[in-house]
Amino acid sequence: MGTPLDSREEQVVEVLDRLYEEYPDTDISLDFSTRLELLVAVVLSAQCTDERVNDVTEDLFEKYRSAEEYADASEEELAEDIYGITFHNSKAGYLKGIGEILVAEHDGEVPDTMSALTDLPGVGRKTANVVLQHAHDVVEGIVVDTHVRRLSRRLGLTEEERPEAIETDLMGIVPEEDWRMFTHLLISHGRATCTARNPDCADCVLADVCPSEKGDSEIDLDSGEPW
User: Fold this and answer.
1) Any binding-site annotation on 204?
2) CATH match for 8-26+144-209 among 3.40.50.1970, 3.40.605.10, 1.10.760.10, 1.10.1670.10
3) 201 carries a ligand binding annotation
């Protein structure tokens, strides 16, 4: 079993140092060129792969270039335009509602506060954090997606289960200057090595400090289940 460092603060610094070296060019994998495009892409990415989102938004962003155009479209048309996205019918409603609120309350622009963003349909704290960080260069927290949840628990950085509680816990131990990159580093490592079903512990740069390392550990600390 890997042996974590003595404190969670030391553990997270070691994890960051190794992952920065392993993934020096990691960043957001959604394609966008405007703040509105980013907001739409992140809303669509919930429970859907970034690859699928990028495929769908290539044409979507050619057709819809403003909040007004989303507001004026019917939900049926939007659902057809994002067909292939998970829960496309519900997300079509979100996009129309977002367009309407942006036009009515924000002059068609994407707001730059957590409260205003989370008032939009389909936008929770995770989505708002992504938009703030990448559209406005405002870092208020840590984006906790499925990769961040899985890896932070496996690595012994948190025992919390809900994304909001995990975020609060991590914000107490991750240096603030690393909040934004922490997410991208864990996502990259989660995709490349520490996958959900069959992590490649034998080829993991964190294996010797990971308390879930399956060569010796009997338990996956994320799921609580035996390997």
Assistant:
1) yes
2) 1.10.1670.10
3) yes
